[in-house]
Amino acid sequence: MAERSGRRRGKQRDAAPARRTDYSRLRNPFPPMDVFSADEIAAMHETALRTLEELGVKVLLPEARALFRQGGARVDDSTQMVTIGREMVEAALASAPKSILARAGARNRDVLLELGVLNFQPGAGAPHATDLERGRRPGTARDFRELTRLTQAFDVLHMLPPLVEPQDVPTHLRHYFTMEAQLTESDKLPFVFARGTPQTQDSFEMLQGFRGLSDADFAAAPHCYTIINTNSPRTLDIPMAQGLIDFARARQVAIVTPFTLMGAMAPITVAGAITLSHLEALAAITLSQLAQPGAPILYGTFTSNVDMKSGSPAFGTPGHFHASLAAGQLARHIGLPWRSAAGSAANMNDVQAANENQFGLWGCLMAGASVVIHAAGWLEGGLSVSYEKLICDIEVLNMVAELCAGAQAGADEIGFDTALSTVQPGGHFFDAPQTMARYQTEFYQPVVHSYANFRTWTERGAEDTSARATGIWKSIVEAGPGITPDAARVAAMQDFIAKRSAEGGAPPES
Amino acid sequence: MAERSGRRRGKQRDAAPARRTDYSRLRNPFPPMDVFSADEIAAMHETALRTLEELGVKVLLPEARALFRQGGARVDDSTQMVTIGREMVEAALASAPKSILARAGARNRDVLLELGVLNFQPGAGAPHATDLERGRRPGTARDFRELTRLTQAFDVLHMLPPLVEPQDVPTHLRHYFTMEAQLTESDKLPFVFARGTPQTQDSFEMLQGFRGLSDADFAAAPHCYTIINTNSPRTLDIPMAQGLIDFARARQVAIVTPFTLMGAMAPITVAGAITLSHLEALAAITLSQLAQPGAPILYGTFTSNVDMKSGSPAFGTPGHFHASLAAGQLARHIGLPWRSAAGSAANMNDVQAANENQFGLWGCLMAGASVVIHAAGWLEGGLSVSYEKLICDIEVLNMVAELCAGAQAGADEIGFDTALSTVQPGGHFFDAPQTMARYQTEFYQPVVHSYANFRTWTERGAEDTSARATGIWKSIVEAGPGITPDAARVAAMQDFIAKRSAEGGAPPES
């Protein structure tokens, strides 16, 4: 919720109300775009099922193989290969919920996950942070906390991802820090890394305690989420399989996201890469539903191409866009809510970074993604998150959110009596009755874009958008946390962390 | 047409063909998006007709008023007001062609104008040019020529606009220069400013002579185009009315574009501003068809909002996007090909410039515009054209053109036999048969985007995208004209210019 007052040409016109915006619940207004025919999508789905039946996937976790075996799959423990019949996949798709309401720290932060909604996340999982004042550096606890604070500050960002890896926190204690930072900086839906059962259980316990949830409360609705990345091609590793099982049994949200680069760990074609991504997602969804029928799970994809000259990943490309569209068609084919991703391969917050991110974003929007990850701040194909890019991309997300609200064309808006007929040829509408009633509320007010003319802008120092963004993120960071958490619950959480740390914490699984 | 060779990881694989692209004929693949209901659109059209009937438009040119009077309009010469019955508008919409093929200097440069096609133009009409080497300056003949050369170099730009105003050429001779520069630098469809009948007739004569067209040839198909801007609200000035009449009688293309800023010269609402724009376009189209039934004419709009704090124009905003959508719905309502516009209010080629331009572009794409003007290079709301921004925006247009080509998902692309089944878990697809057959042709190759990793990019000097763009435009400009025009025709054109200049040229009408 933002409140802004408009002032225009020096005149005070206090009659009109200030503009208020609320981007916390969005539905996607863009007509879904297909890249493939219905027959082609059916053939991709069929090939995915055939691949699962004939070739299978490699599952490294014995418990996961046992679940697959109990469900009717053919399992070879010596090769760790699991072949999965289509009836198992179909049963999983039938039991997976089509609509999920995840509960955050406040009701207006709750996240609805179904086809047709639109939720944004900033960039996630970067090893480095960068900003114009401090330069590029390995991510720290301070960066994690500051970036979480920035995420809290903009209601167009609906879910908390782990923006950067806090590399200065030891890995066996890192999950305590990330959960504490999320819960004390934000009331939005927190993220839990699936780095093994011990860390997951610690994280659930912290979250339950902080939110004051009984076991029954926690099981009754998801209160956090994780991302499950398969290891393409066709491998499910130990922490990811544990995560699928742990989150399913706890009825917390898992978002399955094969990360498939066309021409590298996936086929070079969009159709081939998305078929691979699809079959890996189906295998993971099946495991989730075998562990707990009805467990909240999202379909997902993140497929782009490599640059064939350098082998480097590229994002915001036509291939990335088409892959998002294809994944959206498959998500609608199986009827599940799903996530897609924007992103950029640029090395700094510049024109390439803006254009790639927005191009990738439009692919997600026209693909009908329920969640768009890496929608703001992601550089270097995910190797860094930029504070300035975060602010700049939020401008675009806000503008998309404005489009979600639509526009009206009733008699008041067409305005024959209040505008069109009141101004003669050669006149202007500055003082038309319609203008007077709306001038403070009609237009989107930007965060970082400037409409100063060239002379004014030059006199102000000719700052580029990145430089202006620095001032914006600094003022938010310096203002302190955007929430005031209950002191007793914070203290209890800190006691828990101290106790568990003294006990040795919980190293990640690998 | 571009030819590029791919090389990857040092290996030579000469078997695969080089990537060829052809962006010269595009059809819009994006599902059209509606912002208003069919009833609301009908109400806007009805209000436009009512306004023309009851309030009318001010027409400054006596000849135009005479044409309106002959056609049945009520004309008051003392007030210059013309009220136009709906039957006149309906007759004009019935006689205006729904599909126009404009002939350029080569058949692959011809421009088809109808609903469903997609043509791009760079930014037009800026008083200033800017680049990183020479800074911002009033536009010159050299800038006009260089920017025309850059427009010729990229086949995703389909029509030549007057990118900058060559302010160092006297106004009574400027049209000779702009036509000569366009014809000697490019074989794409040239633009003629409608600055009065004498300049228009000179321009037509130069074009006919250079292209070797008889009067009958010239009348048989359009060979150039102009833009007609109404003076909002509800005024048609002398040069614009002359342009409508001259182009109609010569059967050359006129694109009617009311330039309506919401909250200034147009109503503050999208619905009101587009209703005003619509009625002005209908009046101009009616005049065109009164002058010559069947004359090639395009519907058009360029509507954005002002910033209510400063009064400055803003582009690439949610209001701009919605206005494009509404105009597209009205264009489909009346069945005419139409133009829309992207653009940016930023003062330099930075993140804001990229994000605004692309945001505005997506509005045009989802609105189904047949022609998108200001699609590349436009800064400061049209006060300057940036050489670097031109290159950077072309990257986005190329990627959109790649989307127009779609993607396949046949058995070869899904690739069960040539990719999916050939790679085991833990493997990679670098050498899969499908990859080997396609690695040089599958992916878009960027113009200015870089996929270098952070270390390589830093070692190369950490150039931002704008700096790389400088090298690209310079190499194109330095390479000389992209065409080799017939020397005899150039000489004849220069003789014509010398003769007409000696006779005093042709001052613009005002």
Question: Which CATH class of chain A is shown?
Answer: Alpha Beta
Ends distance of chain A: 41 Å
Largest sheet data of chain A: 7 strands, mixed
Mean of residue pLDDT of chain A? 95
Overall outline of chain A: globular
**How many separate domains of chain A?**
1
Task: Please give a handful of descriptors for the protein shown.
homodimer; alpha/beta; TIM Barrel; 7-stranded mixed β-sheet; disordered N terminus; MTTB_MeTrfase (chains A, B); EC 2.1.1.- (chains A, B)
Describe this structure in words.
The structure is a homodimer of 510-residue chains. Chain A is of the alpha/beta class and 510 residues long. Chain A has a single domain (1-404, 423-510), classed as Trimethylamine methyltransferase-like (TIM Barrel), CATH 3.20.20. Chain A is 42% helix and 14% strand. The first copy, chain A, contains 17 helices and 21 strands. Chain A has helices at residues 38-54, 62-70, 86-95, 141-153, 174-185, 197-211, 215-220, 238-250, 270-291, 318-334, 351-367, 387-404, 411-414, 433-438, 454-459, 465-478, 487-502, and strands spanning 2-4, 19-21, 26-27, 57-59, 74-76, 81-83, 99-102, 111-114, 117-120, 128-131, 135-138, 225-228, 235-236, 253-256, 259-262, 297-300, 302-305, 338-341, 371-373, 378-379, 384-386. In chain A, the strands form six sheets. In chain A, strands 3-9-19-18-16-14-12 form a seven-stranded mixed sheet. Chain A has a four-stranded mixed sheet with strand order 5-6-4-13. In chain A, helix 5 runs antiparallel to helix 17 and helix 11 (351-367) runs parallel beside helix 12 (387-404). The longest helix of chain A has 22 residues, at 270-291. Chain A is globular. In chain A, 59% of the residues are buried. Residues 1-15 of chain A have low confidence and may be disordered. The interface between A and B is large, with 129 and 130 residues. Chains A, B: This is Methyltransferase. Chains A, B: Residues 1-11 have a biased composition (Basic residues). Chains A, B: Residues 1-27 are annotated as: Disordered. Chains A, B: Residues 12-25 have a biased composition (Basic and acidic residues).
